[in-house]
């Protein structure tokens, strides 16, 4: 996020050693890659097999309970004019000590608080820096699952989840280097602003904190996207500096589907005695006002006494415009966050934009993403719902945990708050649910609310998801006899933020993870189960392959290829129904996010739209269609239709844009095998900005076909880009 | 709350003057009583008629927009050994400036932040202290109602409510005096503690802040209720002093119906150079742990997907025991808070204890009570739900209001937090309702949550009342055809915290406020309307006399006495049903509070149980019966029963105590005129601690009686204190 001008010495040659007791020193060191993970270094050195294959991840289990020592040797650099040498790490996972020349100079618990240590006074001609990493923190008396992480800020997902093996990273996970700083230096620049009600003025406040040992000057510039300087402020540097300055007619930041995600640059320069720049700090600034406002109609609920309040607000209003949020849940894209690169984020975020998503919920079970993630979201116009690293656990009220959480949360908020893509803070995932048993009274959540209020009050905060009015689930095509179509059509929620639909992974993925002799038919107790096709979710041994649901609709597959087609059809049509139904419930409903977008390792079956690392499932294209800002849509009442049955659907035209359209007409037809039956044509009334149009109900008695599937096709005469198509099942009566 | 040892000079002779512009100085002064209100001084001097009578309160309206000057003359007191003279006021309502010898030394907006000013350097032989009070703060563009107070911390109730005339106090409202302080003095002593999980140890932290100009020693003592010193800590005084000390086997504070409200005394002494005590600060400490835990059964709701959280917790757990909270809403006992005395609080709180109430909700529309209120609740074992002074308005997110609210809220929290009676902080009244339109995102409520977390995190906080799961309303005996019996029997709430039942005031009250020629029959447009008998509540011109409801059941009254009997019967039986039904819904339901206990002036009809000042309505006795910790109870299904109809009821035995009872039997009988029909006898199974027993359903075909009323009587053979009786209406069929 912030580029400092100082010289970095990044080419430290790190080594890693380990031993079984804290007081021991490793007798052997192996090459280490930083950032990375201790597990990856050991596996590389010892030629471990790919942990993605079969149950190889189990080989890593012993590494949880070991003490690790990173070390690097470096020569005394040339330090001139009172320069000093600093050790900087943006993240070390999780509890660690730092030594310089074998002297302990820092101890820390927490992977999000950056480390900045002045090494100068300890330096010799040849120096050793060492980072000692403690074993995985665990509540040892708890079951071997996420609850072992219920007292720490480490992502609980790595302790095992229904789509994540138990494989718990440790080690240096973010940029780490030596830095030569001048004696005086700027520690922090934070650019805040308030937009006037009509968005015509941004009242900017620049807050800088610095160590000032000698008199020096500063200059702060705001540049537009073309590099033109639009504001300048200069003066004498102070330890604490506050600048108030107004920008007239700021260009606003918008999500990509509503405008341009316009970014300015804030450039803060500190000058030395000689007048030269000794430090520059640059970061992007986007001007937007974000609020959560009550969903339309929600104030009217409940109508009757006894009066209680309505559901809390979840409608995003950005720059005064109500935005229908279409997006997805983002999970850690790698098991080991240390190896996530900007390019890795970018390939996934490019796919999100291409899928017409304007928001991602970065789920609280996983790691808080690195700076480049937020930079990309800023640039690409993707809104971010950011959760703190709490999920599905009962995090305690005790003083020790609260102190740790505050330490880490302050660092997270200060790092993320300046990104215009940030639209929502959330305390964590499913903390108010019966399996976590936290409540509004839980001190951890009151603390997070208070910290967000203190440091970033203009960004909304919710304690957890779901809160009342918002749905998580369901996660399958059919549950207790109810199909996703019926479930969604009958639901009444302000937001659907975790609706899942499992699909098998593509063949190329399956072949990478499942031994050939286990590939077909899939069975529990094999690599299929290690990769979450069976017994992944409690109380249902068919998740996530869901053979039971597939065979309710289709003949048992005879090949793996056939099974893939069957599973992916249900996933595609199911997800389409989720997105389109939620959209049709606008404006009471204001958001739809599926569970989930990506996955950190190759699963055999999962609710993800993309198989690891970036292989789209067919459902991704289906969702892309369902999320087009402008398109026609049909209500699907059920999946299976019969000969002579009255087929029925209701037509809609969906508009999430500020455009106004008129003169559209929609041809409705059914297609089975080669046959096409035109059953209706709808003259669409005027489509108003940001409003959908509900159209007629269409009914048609189905003929006798000799096919298992048919399609409902909606063609918009004037613009084929608005067309829609649905695949449904057909059965001729046996008697 | 805190007694300081310093000499007070309380006998200042205050005078009051007023004028119409800020820059003017009054040309005339009248005697003033401090604390009090400017209106009372003017009315006393000018012989205004009683504002309680008819519509005399209207005569006070002009006083809203005037500038007031309090002044007092005093001679230079003898100041020895670096002593200094301070001006202290615990509360000035609302915006004011303070002058000493005509020099402006202080400006303030806010009635809760105490004023402490060192006058010493301004003193002459003869001195004038002046307090200039600004006009009533109003949003002048808003309607002339509570919304005019939606940007201030002044109680909105005084701008007009459905039981409160528009009459807006101004002036010095709490203790105000000159104080001679030593140069060194203690500003604040706060005694916090954490109880161990088994309540066997109180880990106490004493935090003191002082101005220390010379070396001096302190001594802190904790004394038990008998005055025995149980802990002592001594040392050298510091500007900031923190003492950590443990008390073993602390006696716990309990509400009066669960144990002894045991109080210790914290005594902090500062010694002068000569070793003598120069200041002592004493306050009471009670040890209790209070939490809001989930109501029993609430985690199971909702059972189905889509999963959302259950209702938030409102079950009070005190010292590990779930307490069923029975109580009432407390409103300002006087229109002018300046005249409220400890005795005034005590007479009302004595009535609350006698009514078997263990909690009062001090409603956010009214003033935050003075110290003596909380001291009495501590001593008497009454739990306090304390609201911040926000009610039924949309308080803004703007910086100015938030700064004011923080200023005042910090003072409120610091003053109240040390009271063991405090069990719940609440942001204010009905802020999430459609008429106020605040939400979880409102910055004022996030601020209050953050401040309570910072200053008093061990006391629960809710943003407003109601929150989801909790009921406010209904407020009448019959609403849209549904009686209170049916409404309560069918309700499913975790708490009923504002259920009302209107009743006419006793004759002595009516005769005091209504001109004789208007007394009967009551009519709109008369003093009855000024005193809220008609058109008090929007959209219903019969509130609160509710003639329409009374005449649904009874022949029109022919005298005022008859009307009083009719109205008070409905109030008594209605309230009894509210309390008993809510109690029978334990443990899912954990609280029942009626709207409301008292009233600040004599209304003609109101939901209050007590007419101003302290005249009980018959409903008070009915509620006392309904709230007995141990009693028998009958489900009332409806109010009117007919000849030959199957009368039906269900029996319960209620137990909110830790006692266990067995061998009880209940005789059930109906009484009409002189006739008594014994219809059943119930052998009550064992009554377990803190649990109710559901008994049998009783049915009985009603005979022909020639009476309009009959009684259902439940007699407990073994203990008449557990008996219950219900009055119901009877109608013989006409044909």
Produce the secondary structure layout.
Two copies of one chain form a homodimer.
Chain A: E1 3-4, E2 7-9, E3 14-19, E4 30-31, H1 38-45, E5 67-75, E6 84-89, E7 92-93, E8 95-100, E9 103-109, E10 115-118, E11 126-133, E12 171-172, E13 176-181, E14 185-195, E15 201-211, E16 217-223, E17 229-236, E18 240-248, E19 264-271, E20 277-285, E21 290-293, E22 315-318, E23 321-323, E24 325-330, H2 342-354, E25 359-362, H3 371-380, E26 383-387, H4 399-416, E27 422-426, H5 443-456, E28 461-462, E29 470-472, E30 478-479, E31 482-483, H6 484-490, E32 495-500, E33 503-504, H7 507-513, H8 527-530, H9 547-553, H10 560-584, E34 591-595, E35 605-606, E36 610-611, E37 615-616, H11 618-626, E38 630-634, E39 640-642, E40 646-655, E41 665-672, E42 675-683, E43 693-701, E44 709-716, E45 724-731
Parallel strand pairs in A: 24-25, 24-34, 25-26, 26-27, 27-28, 29-32, 32-34, 39-45
Antiparallel strand pairs in A: 1-20, 2-13, 3-4, 3-5, 5-11, 6-10, 6-13, 7-12, 8-9, 8-11, 14-15, 15-18, 16-17, 16-19, 19-20, 21-22, 22-23, 30-31, 33-35, 36-37, 38-40, 40-43, 41-42, 41-44, 44-45
Helix pairs in contact in A: 2-3, 4-5, 6-10, 10-11
Enumerate the strands of the largest sheet of chain A in spatial order, edge to edge or round the barrel.
28-27-26-25-24-34-32-29
What oligomeric state do these chains adopt? homodimer
The CATH class of the largest domain in chain A: Alpha Beta
Largest interface: A-B, 49 and 49 residues
Query: Which residues of chain A sit in consecutive blocks of at least 5 with pLDDT less than 50?
Result: none
Anisotropy-based shape of chain A:
globular
The third-level CATH topology of the largest domain in chain A is TIM Barrel
Number of domains of chain A: 4
Q: Report the C-alpha radius of gyration of chain A, rounded.
A: 28 Å
| DSSP summary, beta strand count of chain A | 45
| Average pLDDT number of chain A | 96
Sheet-strand content of chain A, in percent, reads 25-35%
Terminal-residue CA separation of chain A:
68 Å
- Any guess at the CATH architecture of the largest domain in chain A? Alpha-Beta Barrel
Helical stretch tally of chain A: 11
Helix content of chain A: 10-25%
């Amino acid at each position: 996020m912030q580029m400092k001008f100082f010289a970095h010495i990044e080419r430290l040659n790190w080594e890693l050693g380990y031993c079984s007791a804290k007081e021991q020193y490793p007798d052997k060191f192996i090459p280490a890659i930083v950032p990375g993970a201790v597990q990856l270094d050991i596996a590389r050195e010892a030629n471990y097999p790919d942990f993605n294959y079969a149950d190889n991840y189990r080989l890593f289990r012993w590494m949880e309970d070991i003490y690790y020592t990173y070390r690097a040797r470096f020569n005394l650099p040339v330090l001139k004019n009172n320069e000093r040498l600093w050790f900087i790490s943006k993240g070390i996972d999780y509890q660690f000590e730092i030594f310089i020349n074998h002297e302990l100079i820092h101890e820390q618990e927490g992977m999000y608080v950056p480390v900045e240590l002045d090494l100068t006074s300890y330096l010799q001609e040849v120096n050793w820096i060492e980072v000692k990493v403690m074993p995985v923190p665990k509540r040892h008396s708890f079951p071997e699952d996420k609850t072992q992480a219920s007292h720490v800020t480490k992502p609980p997902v790595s302790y095992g989840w229904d789509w994540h093996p138990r494989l718990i990273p440790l080690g240096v996970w973010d940029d780490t280097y030596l830095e030569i700083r001048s004696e005086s230096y700027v520690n922090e620049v934070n650019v805040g602003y308030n937009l006037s009600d009509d968005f015509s003025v941004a009242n900017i406040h620049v807050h800088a904190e610095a160590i000032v040992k000698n008199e020096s000057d500063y200059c702060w510039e705001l540049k537009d996207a073309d590099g033109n300087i639009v504001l300048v402020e200069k003066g004498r540097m102070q330890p604490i500096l506050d600048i108030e300055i107004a920008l007239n007619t700021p260009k606003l930041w918008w999500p990509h589907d509503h405008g341009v995600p316009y970014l300015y640059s804030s450039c803060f320069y500190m000058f030395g005695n000689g007048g030269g720049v000794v430090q520059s700090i640059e970061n992007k600034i986007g001007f937007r006002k974000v609020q959560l406002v009550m969903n339309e109609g929600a104030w009217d609920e409940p109508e009757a006494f006894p009066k209680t309040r309505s559901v809390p607000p979840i409608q995003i209003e950005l720059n005064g415009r109500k935005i229908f949020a279409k997006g997805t849940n983002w999970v850690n894209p790698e098991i080991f966050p240390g190896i996530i690169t900007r390019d890795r984020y970018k390939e996934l975020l490019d796919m999100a934009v291409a899928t017409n998503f304007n928001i991602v919920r970065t789920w609280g079970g996983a790691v808080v993403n690195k700076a480049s993630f937020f930079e990309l979201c800023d640039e690409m116009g993707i809104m971010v719902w950011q959760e703190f690293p709490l999920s599905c656990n009962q995090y305690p009220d005790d003083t020790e945990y609260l102190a740790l959480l505050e330490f880490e949360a302050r660092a997270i908020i200060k790092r993320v708050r300046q990104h215009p893509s940030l639209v929502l803070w959330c305390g964590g995932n499913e903390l108010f649910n019966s399996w976590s048993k936290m409540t509004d009274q839980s001190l951890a959540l009151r603390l997070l609310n208070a910290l967000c209020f203190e440091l970033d009050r203009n960004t909304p905060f919710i304690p957890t998801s779901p809160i009342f009015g918002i749905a998580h689930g369901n996660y399958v095509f059919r549950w207790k006899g109810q199909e996703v179509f019926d479930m969604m059509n009958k639901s009444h929620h302000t937001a659907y933020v975790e609706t899942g639909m499992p699909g098998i992974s593509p063949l190329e993925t399956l072949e990478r993870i499942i031994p050939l002799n286990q590939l077909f038919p899939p069975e529990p107790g094999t690599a299929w189960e290690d990769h979450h096709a069976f017994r992944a979710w409690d109380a249902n041994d068919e998740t996530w392959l869901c053979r039971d649901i597939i065979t309710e609709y289709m003949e048992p597959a005879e090949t793996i290829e056939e099974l893939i087609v069957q599973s992916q059809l249900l996933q595609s049509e199911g997800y389409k129904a989720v997105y389109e139904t939620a959209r049709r419930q606008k404006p009471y409903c204001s958001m739809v996010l599926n569970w989930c977008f990506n996955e950190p390792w190759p699963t055999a079956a999962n609710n993800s739209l993309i198989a690891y690392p970036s292989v789209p499932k067919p459902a991704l294209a289906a969702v892309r269609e369902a999320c087009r800002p402008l398109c026609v849509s049909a209500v699907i009442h059920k999946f299976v239709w019969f000969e002579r049955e009255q087929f029925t659907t209701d037509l809609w035209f969906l508009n999430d844009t500020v455009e106004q359209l008129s003169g559209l007409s929609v041809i409705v037809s059914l297609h089975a095998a080669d046959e096409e039956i035109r059953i209706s044509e709808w003259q669409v009334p005027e489509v108003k900005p940001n409003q959908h149009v509900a159209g007629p109900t269409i009914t048609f008695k189905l003929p006798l076909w000799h096919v298992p599937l048919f399609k409902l096709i909606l063609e918009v005469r004037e613009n084929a880009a608005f067309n829609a198509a649905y695949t449904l099942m057909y059965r001729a009566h046996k008697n």
